[in-house]
Amino acid sequence: MLLKGVLRALNLDKDWLEVSVDGNSQPVTGVGEAVDDLIGPMVNREVNVRVKRGPRSSLVFIDIELEE
Fold it and tell me: What's the pTM?
């Protein structure tokens, strides 16, 4: 599944980020610390986030890239 929106927030210590898709906040878990340098500069920019469905319909992080 692909989320296209604006990266609004992230907390790598708590392992989540938040993407605003059409004005709706979409929390994504499972980010991990390995992408800290990659994700930080993307805040408040258009991004594409690949996710999969996790337990209780949660969204689990796979990959992120800037929208071009």
Answer: 0.87
- Contact in structure between 47 and 7 (CB atoms under 8 Å): yes
Residues 6+ apart with CB under 8 A from 66: 42, 45, 46, 47, 48
Q: Pairing relation of β-strands 2-11 and 24-29? A: unpaired
Q: Which domains does the chain have, with CATH numbers?
A: 2-62 (2.40.50)
Residue 16 near residue 54, CB atoms below 8 Å: no
Torsion angle of C-alpha atoms 22, 27, 30, 36, degrees rounded to 10: 70
**How do residues 14-44 score in pLDDT, each as one tens digit?**
889 999 999 999 999 998 865 667 888 899 9
